[in-house]
Amino acid sequence: MRTTPPTRLPADIYDSAAAAARQDSRTVPQQIAHWARIGRELEMSPQVNHRAIRQVLSGEGSYDELGQREQAVVRGAWTERIAERRSSLNYGATFRASGQAYSEADEDGNVIIHPGSE
Prior knowledge:
The chain is mostly helical. The chain contains five helices and two strands, in the order αααααββ. It has two domains: about 10-85, no CATH class; about 90-118, no CATH class. A two-stranded antiparallel sheet has the order 1-2. A hairpin with a 5-residue loop joins strand 1 (about 100-105) and strand 2. The protein starts with 10 loop residues before the first helix and ends with a strand.
């Protein structure tokens, strides 16, 4: 088997692949390769309108005008984009930088109040 250079994956993708790999008796790399092959075949499929998907994802097309397959692809892309954006948010740092008070829940559900500097 030919070796390939290492690739960094988002933690959520790796964790999902690890869970799926256990269910399907694959290794994590085998599971990721399996998903990559499915994605490649989906993108090459004449039954999926990739141009329409790209238009919706760029804001130039209507989700409601897509077929079921295309809508599923768009929903998957939206889910990835939302997760990526959420992971980059740090409201605590934003509030601290502006001197505003804020509250949050800890892992046990207890409310923690952070006083502002105003």
